[in-house]
Amino acid sequence: TIALTKVENAEVVWAEQYNTSLDELFAIQDQITSTIVGQLDPKLRTSEIKRISGKQPERLDAHDCVLRAIYLLNKMSQEYFTEIKNLLYNAISIDSSYSSAYAWLSFSCLFSVGQGWVQDDGLSITEAEVFSRKALDLDPEDDMALTIAGHLQSFAYHNFDQGLQLLERALQLNPNSSFAWATSAATYCYIGEPEEALRRLAKSRELCPFDPYAVVYENNYSVAYTIAERYSEAVEWGRKVTHDNPTFTNGYKPLIASLGHLGQTEEAREYIQRLLSLEPEFSISAFSKKYPLQKETDKQKYIDGLRKAGVPETSSSMKQHRDTRTHPGNVIHINQRRRG
Questions:
Q1: pLDDT at 111 over 60
Q2: φ, ψ at 262 (rounded to 5°)
Q3: One domain for residues 207 and 164
Q4: Does residue 59 sit in the same domain as residue 88?
Q5: Whether residue 270 sits in one domain with residue 241
Q6: How many contiguous H segments (helices) and E segments (strands) does the chain have?
Q7: What ranges does the record give for the region Disordered, renumbered to this chain (predicted)?
Q8: Residue 261 maps to which CATH number?
Q9: 22 or 277: which carries more pLDDT confidence?
Q10: Which residues does residue 12 pair with via DSSP β-bridges, in sequence order?
Q11: Which domain holds residue 80?
């Protein structure tokens, strides 16, 4: 039995039993080491979050602020969005050289775009890019920052080659990062390689089978199965994701598309109603413009499923303002150099 115990109170944070002979133990020690390292990170994070839960805000240090922000981010609720960003800004004000704070600020901006929480996607993506660059300037070998930067390139800019380079660099630095394995799976979905995405998701689960914040990763299963046209499996995962976290808007989209392809439109309509209550502007038009699928055939299959399910072609505001134009005074011009 291998265990991690807190010195101050003898609390067992993590333990695992391995049933093997001494000879076999030496043969598989690298595999055991990878498993231990992969499982410890989320366990330690959960333990640390419990530790700071009773702290007054003014007593939080930079690391505490980031942990609290990650905890709230995984609740996936818009009501916490302002608090999340304030915590991360506080972390930077306490320690301006803390790369993780900038990396998670980048992720929070990107996540808000994916969730449909912001009115100006372009501005939020630009902010995500600025914070991502700062994180990597401070620590070019921060595997978490590299993972977030890679996802930013793939999801926001559709720069898949650059995204994969950053994600592979993260895995070179930390091959036991379940976060990097699962996040890289999303990019493989985007480029039309769902089987590779599923392999990476399996590796992530092998490293960390009980991650308390796995709902985002689990949605990648639903996306991968949708792209692979394995719609029944996509629906199975989609139901789980939306049940476990009903405020996660992206959990509904592959589920709805797969239900559409299966002809299960009555169930799909229920999920469409839930999705539109969370993201009122979602439509086939909005999906087509934003969602980063490299292959046109994959995009059209996905859209076909959404259409069969009954997703509206355009949002209500687009219908209302179809003939209006943005006033020039409301346009923000930003000259921001992008990666790649």
A1: yes
A2: -85, -5
A3: no
A4: yes
A5: yes
A6: 17, 2
A7: 309-340
A8: 1.25.40.10
A9: 277
A10: 5
A11: 55-175
Same domain flag for 269 and 228: yes
Pair 33, 88 in one domain = no
> pLDDT band at residue 18, thresholds of 50, 70 and 90?
low
Same-domain pairing of 134 and 14: no
Q: Are 160 and 191 in contact (CB under 8 A)?
A: yes
Q: Is the pLDDT reported for residue 25 higher than 70?
A: no
Question: Which stretches does DSSP call E strand in the chain?
Answer: 2-5, 12-16
What is residue 8's predicted lDDT score, i.e. its pLDDT? 54
pLDDT in tens, 273-314: 999 999 999 999 999 999 999 999 999 999 999 999 999 999
Residues 319 and 215 in one domain: yes
CB within 8 A of 52, min separation 6: which ones?
60, 64, 67, 68
The Cα–Cα gap between 289 and 285 comes to: 6
pLDDT tier, 213 (very low <50, low <70, confident <90, very high otherwise):
low
Looking at the structure of the chain, the number of domains it has is 3
How many of the other CB atoms lie within 10 Å of CB of 1? 6
